[in-house]
Amino acid sequence: MKKLLLTVCLLVGVVTLKAQGPGGPPPPPEERAKMFFSNQRYAAFAFTEEQKTKITPMLVKFYTSSDSLMATVPRDGGMEAFQAVAPKRAALGEPTEKAILAMLTPEQKKAYDAALAAAKERNPNATAVFTGGFGGRPRN
């Protein structure tokens, strides 16, 4: 009986994942903006409550615009389709990135410079830390 229950649970899980696609749909922009501050990737920035209050609506706006742009990418377009919109997405994120960068303390700016340098090691065209700007060059 336990084996049957385990098999059924596993099967339901696989069917659910396939229905959602890889990783499933992204959470709504408001939820992602909240999740941004708990993401381990940004822990080094130790954002203050005041910074979080100012940054959150900017992230919501960026995520909303980015989602609209990504919705124009055909699902069967392959990696080339995503690479084609990468410069547009980077341009969408640029004002948000600059606004957040302007709010950083000197210590946070040091963390930003280190994070951007690490991103550039992975992709020489990296242009952003918070909004993921990559300028459209394929990653190797």
Structure description:
The protein has 140 residues and is mainly alpha-helical. The protein has a domain at 28-122. Helix content is 66%, strand content 0%. The protein has five helices and no strands. Mean pLDDT is 81; it is low at 1-21 and 136-140.
Describe, in short, the structure shown.
The chain is mostly helical and 140 residues long. Helix content is 66%, strand content 0%. It contains 5 helices and no strands.
Give the count of helical stretches: 5
Would you tell me the structural class of the helices and strands? Answer: mainly alpha
Could you tell me the mean pLDDT? 81
H/E series: HHHHH
Portion of residues in beta strands equals under 5%
Report the major sheet: none
Estimated helix fraction: 55-70%
Q: Which runs of at least 5 residues are low in confidence (pLDDT < 50)?
A: 1-21, 136-140
Shape: globular
The number of strands is: 0
Distance between the terminal alpha carbons, to the nearest Å?
A: 48 Å
Query: Mind telling me the C-alpha Rg?
Result: 18 Å
Q: State the assembly state of the protein chains.
A: single chain
